[in-house]
Amino acid sequence: MATPEGYSTRQLQTWNMRREGYTLYEIGRRLGVTKQAISRTIKKTEAKISSTLETTAKAAKIEINHVDASKGILLGFSHETGDRVVITFSTRHGPHIWHHGSQRCEGCGLYSECMRLILDEAKDRGVELTDEERGYTPAEIAREVFSRVLPGVEP
Questions:
Q1: Is 154 helix (H, G, I), strand (E, B) or coil?
Q2: What is the distance between the alpha carbons of residues 46 and 70, in angstroms, rounded to a whole number?
Q3: What's the CA gap between 96 and 114, in Å, rounded?
């Protein structure tokens, strides 16, 4: 795993474990530190993730509607494209922007890369996709995945 710039391996490992549902005590025990140390690490990491998501949104001129750093998700709106947007942060890929209503996936030169990224997102977030859903475009899969991860993102 390549560590996104500005994050330590320990920060990302701790954040991932918390996202997977481990308690502070369980994470501390696995990593050999106190739950207080884990709590501090998670707070610092979530502040960084929130900043990363917000900076990505601002750079892409996306209006921010909601940020959930514990899940690594920002909901927003792009006035340029007229699309709702989900910006995600993952320990494998860092930040990524997903346009909700994108009909431009077919024929795009980045189709395969986006497909790989969204299937990684689904796996990392514990979202099981059916064979039918795996046949959707990356934008359609993104809507399915994020609607299961964060209420308010409609498929």
A1: coil
A2: 6
A3: 10
Q: Which residue has the tokens 């024929």?
A: 107
The model carries a pTM of 0.88
Among 151, 140, 144, 60, which Cα is nearest to 101's?
A: 140
Q: How many residues comprise the chain? A: 155
Residues 6+ apart with CB under 8 A from 117: 93, 96, 138
C-alpha triplet 31, 3, 17: angle, nearest 5°: 35
Contact between residue 68 and residue 85 where contact means Cβ atoms under 8 Å apart: no
Quick one: which of 95, 99, 141 has its CA closest to 116? 141
pLDDT of the residue at 1: 43
Q: What is the pLDDT along the chain (155 residues), one digit of tens a residue?
A: 456 888 999 999 999 999 989 999 999 999 999 999 999 999 999 999 999 999 999 999 999 999 999 999 999 999 988 888 999 999 888 999 988 766 677 777 888 898 999 999 999 888 999 999 999 988 889 888 988 888 766 64
Give the phi and the psi of residue 86 in degrees, each rounded to 5: -120, 125
b/e code 141-152 from CB counts within 10 Å (16+ = b): bbbbbbebbbee
